[in-house]
Design goal:
Distance between the termini: 40 Å
Structural class: mainly beta
Shape: globular
Mean pLDDT: 96
Radius of gyration: 14 Å
Low-confidence stretches: none
Strand content: over 45%
Length: 118
């Protein structure tokens, strides 16, 4: 059973930084094809923040380019999101996402709250 566990959310002032982490906690998966982050602000749809595949191809939402950096530890099936120059509009619940091709399934973490005060 795939289990994604996020950590690192919290409250920060505008201009500050946070680092999110997401681990595949079951330890039963040898490789995850795509890992990344989505976010959902109150009253809005969940949207892509950044994703990275095993080939090191990375995609960022335009709104976070130049401020956020995604990275992966493939051996540990862990993904990180370094968030710098945070803005109040970055406030949302951030969800870890993983796609495993051999299962043809997408998995989600429970979400971690990020709040940026002005």
């Amino acid at each position: 059973q795939v289990q994604l566990v996020e950590s690192g959310g919290g409250l920060v002032q505008a201009g500050g930084s946070l680092r999110l982490s997401c681990d595949e906690a079951s330890g039963s998966i040898s490789s995850i094809d795509v890992m990344g982050w989505y976010r959902q602000a109150p009253g809005k749809q969940r949207t892509l923040v950044a994703i990275a595949n095993t080939g090191s191809s990375i995609t960022y939402a335009d709104s976070v380019k130049g401020r956020f950096t995604i990275s992966r530890d493939h051996a540990k099936n862990t993904v990180y999101l370094q968030m710098d120059s945070l803005k109040p509009e970055d406030t949302a619940v951030y969800y870890c996402n993983a796609f495993i091709s051999i299962f043809r399934k997408t998995y989600w973490g429970q979400g971690t709250q990020v709040t940026v005060s002005s």
